[in-house]
Amino acid sequence: MSKVTIQAAREPRSSRILGIGGYRPSRVVTNAEIIEHIDSSDEWIRTRSGIESRRWASDEETVVSMSLAAAQKALADAGVQPEQVDCVIVSTVTHLYQTPSAAAEIAHKLGTNKAAAFDISAACAGFCYGLSLASDMVRAGTAGHVVVIGVERLSDLTDKTDRSTAFLFADGAGAAVVGPAAGPAEAGIGPVVWGSDGEHLDLIKQREDWRDALRNEIGPTMPHLVMQGNPVFRWASYEMAKVAQEALTAAGVTVDDLDVFVPHQANMRITDAMARTLKLPERVAIARDIATQGNTSAASIPLAIERMLETGEAQSGDLALIIGFGAGLVYAGQVIRIP
Amino acid sequence: MASTEEIREGLAEIVNEITGVPAEDVQLDKSFTDDLDIDSLSMVEVVVAAEEKFGVKIPDEEVKNLATVGDAVTFIEKAGS
């Protein structure tokens, strides 16, 4: 038996988010356009979801092109060059190629030096899952800089005649660059609190697999997303508030320390209920990007952070609580410093 | 165990807190949707708060049968007994 010691990559260090960037598709889709296909009204959609309009991607705005635009903005924001990127993680449920991954193509087109690249599937919790992986890679020394992208073209899998989801889902991309912090005092990503609950697989899901969708008797169809709104609302508003509280505790902070709250932009009513359950102080800025962006699943948190930085609701250095939750069911939350 | 009137009063407080509907409007014969204008998501919030307040479990599939304030009060009385 060989007695050599395997050399550890390096001593653990701290990580933080260095830059954020987003891409919002060019086409604005109003509630008036949505209700051409469903029995609903602008007022119903606004009161049930807080959504006034959303963005849907054109044929040219692909998962890869939107990701590239978001990642390039995030790299510029971070002041990091593509060749410094060691890994690209893409979270999406709407890259409709089973293989190769979107991440490999994006890593190449970004101009990285053959960075490691892979896609993950964690639905609306995807950005927080990816951020956790990236943070641990940086802390362990597996990677120097990691690009995390949440991207969706949910409009491809949305049933435009389903009055419970047609107004909700939207498209876009958001990215973050994660890298080393100068020291433990500069750490910018708290411990993740995450998990899954496959018992409730049916609450939000793709209706059928691709094989069944393509072999459908009436001809090939898209396997649309379906959702049971009320149970999801209950789970998200209350169970996820508990997870958010655990993420605060894990980071050693309380709601009184927070500057910003950025939940996955699932529904304005969920955001409001979570904020009430968490008893957030009034001065905490709450992300409400959903009003004009819709629910963009994995992309929603970085897009919302980018918007809050643009409007001045959030400032660099602010302490933020982020939490993603969705189909699986899966969830992940952490405390971060806004870059 | 709380009386019917005590449960109604407790429920009225919850409805007022969540939706802003005046507590005195929350009477046994009132329909949550038609009279009090409470939508399905607010109803979920009312149910969760009622579960906590009265220490009962109101399953999702039961919620759609609770059309009036009286229905809810009766359910809570039975579930709590």
Describe this structure in words.
- Chain B: Its main location: cytoplasm.
- Chain B: It holds the Pfam family PP-binding.
- Chain B: The modification O-(pantetheine 4'-phosphoryl)serine is found at residue 40.
- The complex is a heterodimer of chains A (339) and B (81).
- Chain A has 339 residues and is of the alpha/beta class.
- Chain A has two domains: 15-186, Thiolase/Chalcone synthase (Peroxisomal Thiolase, Chain A, domain 1, 3-Layer(aba) Sandwich), CATH 3.40.47.10; 193-337, Thiolase/Chalcone synthase (Peroxisomal Thiolase, Chain A, domain 1, 3-Layer(aba) Sandwich).
- Chain A has ten helices and 14 strands.
- In chain A, the strands form four sheets. Chain A has a five-stranded mixed beta sheet with strand order 1-7-6-4-5, with helices on both faces. A five-stranded mixed beta sheet of chain A has the order 8-14-13-11-12, sandwiched between helices. A two-stranded antiparallel sheet of chain A has the order 2-3.
- In chain A, a hairpin with a 3-residue loop joins strand 13 (319-326) and strand 14 (330-337).
- Chain A is globular and about 65 Å long.
- The model of chain A has no long low-confidence stretch (mean pLDDT 95).
- Chain B is globular and about 30 Å long.
- The mean pLDDT of chain B is 90.
- Chain B has helices at 4-19, 40-54, 60-63, 69-80.
- In chain B, helix 1 (4-19) packs across helix 2 (40-54) and helix 1 (4-19) crosses helix 4 (69-80).
- Chain B is an all-alpha fold and 81 residues long.
- Chain B has one domain (4-80): Non-ribosomal Peptide Synthetase Peptidyl Carrier Protein, Chain A, CATH 1.10.1200.10.
- In chain B, 58% of the residues lie in helices and 0% in strands.
- Chain B is built from four helices and no strands.
- Classes of the chains: A alpha/beta (339), B mainly alpha (81).
- At the A-B interface, helix 7 of A face helix 2 of B.
